[in-house]
Write a structure and sequence with these properties.
There is one protein chain. This protein is mostly helical. It has a single domain, classed as Hydantoin permease (Orthogonal Bundle). Helix 4 packs parallel to helix 11, helix 5 packs antiparallel against helix 6 and helix 15 crosses helix 16. The N terminus is likely disordered. It binds phenylalanine.
Length: about 450
């Protein structure tokens, strides 16, 4: 603790406040990146958009756009030492940039309101699995829809949001950092155990080759855009998260190395998730391209047919719940940091107010699931789907664009804060100035339905 305090005093900056230790920061940032995106979304979009060829595209997007933008967000946070809005104002001297930053804060707040619902599903399923109740049913699609018809998802959503609040209430180092230091090693152990289990299933090879042998004929422009959008989501970009975490990083820490560690961690995690999910679905003859239900519908069927299935199923959903919580923690911290600075409230009061509001805003999403409240489904989508659509496809690419343009064109001190020189610096700036904005704009126009491919 003493070491941290003196480090934060030395690092100075405007708000010489709370700081991560250097390993704590890397773990917390990996925790934010690794989440339901890797284990729930990544497998089903890979299933839908072409298996290995899609995975390759995702890796390329992560390298050429994801990593440069991640470094940019971290540098803005550490340079500005504020929340995702005030950091931009301090570095630019203009309120307008702060307004753009505020959109990313709202994005994080809204994403949390429905991300917590999916996180809640994983907890419910972990419980069902350990108690053996999951496998009492034969029809997993029906089980999932009955669950959503009930009010249970609202209960779990409440629990996830307030559990997250409870963790960050304790602050950056005693709360966020400590929590990630416990959970991430647990996550790695679970991941390895489950990957070994999946790969040792008889006939696992077919699933592995679907995931790793590219068939380029399956690729389309659409898969490229989905891959890019997912690279953003998966690295927690465009939502103020990495800017907020960046503000708690010590001046002496290398942001370049941190970027590589987070990108690498996220990629390895997605890779191992693929090695768990595809062999399991293929061995049991299930469809890998069935969409969002893949994890909640196909995998229970697979686990039920496997020896010790309720143990492995339970572990799998615990893994998902852990991964989700390390991400919800980073999402809640974004609006909490803003509220603390804007209203000068204590951390505890800020957390309580933001978490309560987030639960309220999330209620329509939770209630729109299943057949509970029919008017919450309109325009062919439930309220939940609308929130996901607007955040993932509009707010997130817009937030990404703001950061790229800001760091690429407006902020003179970017190179110094990022600690890059020579070739690395030139490449980084080139990506931020030309490649990333162009690609992000394409994703945005495509996702918003303005261009069709
Ligand atoms: N990166 C997280 C995941 O993959 C989701 C997330 C997005 C978290 C944006 C924070 C901000 O699940």
């Amino acid at each position: 603790m003493k070491k941290n305090q003196s480090a934060s005093l030395q690092s100075g900056g405007k708000g010489a406040g709370e700081r991560f230790s250097s390993s704590g920061f890397i773990l917390a940032a990996i925790g934010s990146a690794v989440g339901l995106g890797n284990m729930w979304k990544f497998p089903y979009i890979t299933g839908q958009y072409g298996g290995a060829a899609f995975f390759l595209l995702f890796v390329i997007c992560l390298l050429i756009v994801g990593l440069p933008v991640l470094l940019a967000e971290l540098a803005v946070g550490r340079g500005g030492r504020g929340n995702a809005s005030t950091s931009l104002i301090r570095l630019s001297g203009h309120k307008l940039w702060g307004g753009f930053g505020f959109i990313t804060i709202l994005g994080a707040f809204v994403i949390l309101s429905f991300y917590a619902i999916v996180a809640g599903w994983t907890m419910h399923y972990a419980m069902l699995s350990f108690t053996g109740k999951l496998f009492a049913s034969e029809d997993y699609a029906m089980l999932f829809s009955h669950f959503n018809d009930s009010w249970l998802p609202v209960f779990w959503q409440f629990l996830v949001i307030f559990l997250t609040g409870f963790i960050i209430m304790r602050g950056v180092s005693a709360g966020i950092e400590k929590f990630n230091k416990v959970l991430i090693p647990g996550l790695v152990i679970l991941l390895v155990v489950l990957a070994i289990r999946a790969l040792s299933l008889e006939g696992a090879g077919e699933g592995v080759s679907f995931f790793l042998k590219p068939d380029f004929s399956k690729l389309s422009a659409e898969s490229a855009l989905v891959a890019l959008g997912h690279a953003f989501f998966s690295l927690s970009l465009g939502m103020g998260t990495m800017m907020t975490y960046g503000a708690y990083v010590d001046k002496r820490q290398s942001l370049g190395l941190a970027t590589l560690a987070v990108g690498g961690g996220d990629l390895i995690y997605a890779f191992l998730a693929g090695l768990i999910i595809f062999p399991t679905t293929f061995v049991f003859g299930l469809e890998a391209s069935q969409g969002p239900g893949l994890v909640f519908v196909a995998l229970p069927a697979a686990f039920s047919a496997m020896p010790f299935g309720s143990l492995f199923g339970g572990l799998f959903f615990v893994l998902l719940a852990f991964a989700a919580l390390t991400s919800t923690v980073s999402l809640l911290e974004v609006p909490v940091a803003f509220v603390r600075e804007a209203f000068k409230w204590s951390r505890g009061v800020s957390v309580f107010v933001v978490a309560s509001l987030c639960f309220l805003i999330g209620l329509p999403s939770a209630m729109s699931l299943g057949n509970k409240v029919s008017w919450l489904t309109f325009g062919g989508k439930s309220f939940f789907d609308w929130m996901d659509f607007v955040c993932s496809n509009i707010v997130l690419p817009m937030g990404g664009l703001v950061v790229t343009l800001f760091v690429g064109y407006a902020w003179k001190g970017a190179a110094k804060e990022a600690g890059l020189r020579g070739w690395w610096l030139q490449t980084w700036l080139f990506m931020l100035r030309y490649v990333a904005p162009l690609l992000v704009l394409l994703v945005f126009l495509y996702s918003a339905g303005i261009i069709k491919l």
